[in-house]
From TrEMBL:
Keywords: Kinase, Transferase. One of its GO terms (molecular function) is kinase activity. It comes from Actinoplanes xinjiangensis. The keyword Hydrolase does not apply. PANTHER family: AMINOGLYCOSIDE PHOSPHOTRANSFERASE-RELATED-RELATED, BIFUNCTIONAL AAC_APH. The lineage of its organism: Bacteria, Bacillati, Actinomycetota, Actinomycetes, Micromonosporales. Residues 33-261 form the Aminoglycoside phosphotransferase domain. This is Aminoglycoside phosphotransferase (APT) family kinase protein. InterPro entries: AGP_Transferase (IPR051678), Aminoglycoside_PTrfase (IPR002575), Kinase-like_dom_sf (IPR011009). The keyword DNA repair does not apply.
Length: 294
């Protein structure tokens, strides 16, 4: 099922044609689905490679940004991150740019893969600290999650209204909205602009032998205030959140702004993807449940 207007429908035959056209040296490798997110569809190519194709032409911009900046950021990061190995061009076969990256083994972070959530939270905080300390290198990459909360109030309020209709019987949307309002009431973030991953949710955190080993999907990489970067810790158990908070020594105002960002992304995800992407809606509902129980 498509998620967006003007979405490009892809399948294995199309990807095979792309590979034959632009990187025929890999034509003999096996190919199979490797998941799909809100922005991209992925295929595993052989044992060592991953093909990422944007769902729409405009979403290819994020792949281009990822390819440009990941090689510059990688030397400063303590965990493995994606390595671009081929830049696919738009063609008659596929009307957008696309990427091939090195395959990174590991399981998504979850109850079946993580052994110690406290250590996981500490390791994630260490990665965030390292990323936020990297020199900006003149980058001018802005994204709404690196800005202030106030400009988002209109669409977040609309999404909250949708959530009352869709999940109000199961979740306390009034309390969820109070978390959003509490974040809005805080002073504008005083923190300097830093590098942001932008989407550190569990599906982008890979685990081996119980430990966090890699961070993937830098399609949202940008420069901005760090508050929204911390929002995804509400996707994790409380032990991970506490360890993350303590490791970074986050102040109360930052935590409240981060919580508000967690609300914003979750409620908008439920409202936008309700009919098209049930797996992502489940992620968003889980986040709201964690917020309400914290």
């Amino acid at each position: 099922m498509t998620l967006h207007q003007d979405e490009i429908v892809v399948g294995e035959p199309l990807v095979r044609r792309l590979i034959a056209e632009q990187c025929p040296q890999w034509s003999g490798l096996t190919l199979g689905p490797a998941g799909a997110g809100t922005e991209n569809t992925m295929f595993r190519l052989g044992e060592e490679l991953l093909v990422r194709l944007p769902r729409t032409v405009e979403k290819a911009d994020a792949l281009c940004t990822e390819r440009e900046w990941l090689p510059r950021l990688t030397p400063y990061l303590p965990l493995r991150v994606p390595e671009p190995v081929f830049a696919g061009e738009a063609s008659a076969v596929f009307p957008a740019q696309w990427s091939v990256l090195r395959w990174i083994p590991g399981a998504e972070a979850g109850v079946d893969s993580v052994r110690d959530w406290g250590r996981f939270g500490t390791d994630l905080a260490g990665f965030v600290r390292a990323l936020h300390r990297v020199d900006l290198m003149g980058a001018q990459l802005s994204w709404y999650r690196g800005g202030d909360l106030a400009p988002c109030d209109g669409w977040v309020s609309d999404a909250l209204a949708s959530c009352r209709r869709l999940v109000g019987a199961e979740l306390d949307v009034d309390t969820v909205e109070s978390f959003w309002r509490a974040g809005l009431a805080q002073p504008v973030s005083p923190h300097p602009r830093v590098w942001l991953h932008g989407d550190l949710k569990p599906t982008n955190l890979l685990v081996e032998d119980g430990r966090l080993v890699a961070v993937i999907d830098f399609g949202a990489v940008s420069v901005g205030r760090p508050d929204a970067e911390h929002a995804t810790v509400w996707d994790l158990p409380s032990a991970a959140r506490e360890a993350y908070w303590n490791t970074l020594s986050l102040d109360e105002a930052t935590w409240l702004r981060a919580r508000a960002w967690a609300v914003a992304v979750a409620v908008s995800g439920i409202a936008y993807y309700w009919d098209t992407f049930p797996a992502f809606v489940t992620e968003c509902r889980t986040r709201l449940a964690h917020l309400l129980s914290s």
